[in-house]
Amino acid sequence: MIILTGGAGMIGSIIAWHLNTILNENQFVIVDDLIHPDQEKNISKRKFSEFIHKNDLQKYLSKNSQISAVIHMGAISATTEKNFNHLLNSNIRYSQMLWSWCAENNVPFIYASSAATYGLGENGYSDYEEGINNLSPLNAYGYSKHFFDQWILQQTQAQQPKPPQWCGLKFFNVYGPNEYHKGRMASVIYQAFKQYRKEKEIRLFKSDHPNFDDGMQLRDFVYVKDAVECVVYLLSNPNISGLFNVGTGKADSFKAIGESVANNLGGNSSAIKYIDLPNDLKEKYQYFTEANISKIRSVGFKSKFKSLSEGIADYMQNYLVTNDPYA
Description:
The protein is of the alpha/beta class and 327 residues long. Helices cover 37% and strands 16% of the residues.
């Protein structure tokens, strides 16, 4: 029995989709807190054993020993979250509880870290553990993920009890179906789609950086189905542990997103307009991210990542422009 926390979120629900539709697996428990009324739609098509509120998971674990793995995707994922007590409880203490349980019960533990741990990328985007203490996250969310990564490495280096397998996944800019509940935190792809459908216009941020023209800010955008393939690969290879970047290894521009979205809807680049970067983002804005994926390749992950245009086409044609956008 697999425990899947955050199973009603975007990545978690696509893990559930993959388990059902690709692996024909329905023996798993979804754990979440359905804050947004539309989140239920993320799992309405899924077959699973049980749904548990996140506050009841510890009690459930104490009474169920037949757990084969914990996939921990649940977290406060808003990069704008300013209440660190909320992040402490949800992103650190809850994760530490699951780590300790997995260590005590010899259960593999795969969890979501984040590319937000890299800050401005001044120290690169390498996921090798040796350089982790040089990273400087830009916001409290990134710090909460960074702290937990560091805490785990401290546990392993001190030879404290650990799960038989542990993998921390540093997700870059994930986009795709089932992100509709995320509001401002939804991907630029989804925001651009909504803007074009409503106003025939796509608004992108102007650049405040002299080295980047408007729209030429670069991020590593990874399609959620591809990101989930990384999760499933590691789950099926229990001899592999460590921190791993989950990205395509290729940065693309926001302008390329605008053009691709417009093209898929019958428009062109003339739909793109540039607006000022919000003040609350100016000091904490990543102008360039690009995952170094040599490490996950070195442990045998060979699947090809979709290009940005391929991912956007699948997302839009098979989900966003249909009557039912949910996977």
